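All the exercises in this workshop are built on plain-text protein records. Sequence and backbone structure share a record, each on its own labelled line. The structure tokens are whole numbers drawn from a learned vocabulary of backbone shapes. The record below serves as our worked example for the rest of this section.
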Amino acid sequence: MQYPPYLLETPIYMAAVLALGIAAQWLAWRMKVPAIVFLLFLGFAMGYIVGPPETYLGDNEQGRAILFGMVSLAVGAILFEGGLSLRFQEIRDHSGVVIRLVSLGLAITAVLTTLAARYLVEFSWPMAVLIGSLLTVSGPTVILPLLRQVRPERRVGSIIKWEGIVNDPIGAVLAALVYEVVVHPSTDGMTHGTLFALGKTIVVGLGLGLGGGWVIRELMRRYLVPDFLQNAVVLAMVLLLFAVSNQLQSESGLVTVTVLGIYLANQRSVPIKHVVEFKENLRVLLLAVLFIVLASRIQPSMAELEDIGWRGIVFVLLLIFLVRPIAAFVSTWGSDLTREQRKLLAWMHPRGIVAAAVATLFAIGIAEARPEFEAEAQKMVLVVFLVVVGTVTIYGLSLGRVAKSLGLSREDPQGVLFVGASPLVRELARSLRDEGFGTLLVDTNPENISLARMDGLPVCYASIGSDFVHHETDLGELGNLLAMTSNDEVNTLAASEFAEQFGSANVYQFSPHDKASQRHQRVPAHLRGRILFADGLTEDQVRDRYEAGFRIKKTTLSEGFTMKQFREKYGSDAILMFVLPDKSRLTVIASNSTYEPKPGHKLIALVPPQPAGTPTEA
């Protein structure tokens, strides 16, 4: 096999891109910052060190065609995954706000961005209008990770998610129409041709999206596709529909896959959770590659950087501090959103992979069709990537603090979602509430719910596996799930349902009841959450101790009363449940926990009524 004479062989290059992309996303998770920042940095560095990616795919022309074909399909898959997260019930009370944001707000963003590009960055009018239309997009690649990290209150979070995903295809189609005018500047029938292209885009996008969704639903509903092939069939259908749609009308594929995702997310005939999970995993891999590959193509000269200079930085700041607030406040004027919710909307419009990918594709097409605009096309790519880096960095590093200051989010939420509302659970919830942590008790027992409500505890009368709990309750200040019912199956269902939302490290359940053999186990081990408190400690055992007089007790450790003395005083029957290292952090004790409380930490434990020891607490 012959490899091109570059620094890396092609397989090594491709593997390095994937490995570095995954490492960047892991580092971003650890540091709680947007992954795109690290991905773009790595991409810029790889471009200078090992060269642009198309050089590893054959000659430049062939490599470029292969590269951007793959990039285009990957963007389609990402937008489909975004559409799968959109449920109409999330916005049934504020759909008008979303519609105004993706219409009036998008138009205001386009106009103001065009003016800034023309008079500040000094683009020609055609290129300024193209940049103004292109930078209306946002996208799931940025929005969804930020929402998962910040977890704002449900209402405003749903609006942000819908706007960020829906305006991607709208903005991309708008940019494509402007691009066609720039590339083919004939004035004869321009208005008629543009309107025809817009109408064709809508018809093709809606027709293929809804038709493809119906076909996928029927294939699954009639069991015509075996389970092990369903994810592959859906992915193949998505990419095929995207490509066919783009063949029929340029850029209509983005509309098609978004409509397809929304259709599947809101139909009720077949479950699609396994499809959603597969697409989320695929998105992580695609993002790991796309941002590095696209950024590695940008190797600006000093002259190009000087040409943008301070004007580019001011341009980004104008988009953040002027354009977005105006668009958000005008679009939400007269709505029932609170002032704080409108402010948070005004502080959320990062750009992502669609802006970066489309700008790169447009630059190549403009350079070939209109050589007089080639320099401006390359400048456009630099400006768009500067906007991506700037908006993602500023919004990503500040959104949590802004949402928290507005009272719409709790950064790094520590509260507890309790499954069950038994007397023990209610007492635990009261103890945590008194320490300032949020709680929510979910139960189907009306008596338990009534007693919890009388105690002033937040409750939800529903099954933990219902869509109502996932989509209708506000879980913004909750970061842990404790499944504490007497039913092992319910506890396991709760743990598996919320493992993705809270993270598998933060979902807990009682140890299942022992069975004589594996064949009699009621719940498989891989679906369970972490075991609460101690191995083999079942709900029955804890309840028996509580009914025998054990009580919830808070104890602050000190130099004079250590953890060792606590154990000596209360004996082996005491159950350590929580540790509060400080007033804002909560540690749930699991069976495999190696955490050792230190002086100054507060313990919450279930202790016997008569201390079994002589030491006294300090």
User: Anything to note?
Assistant: The two ends are 75 Å apart (CA to CA).
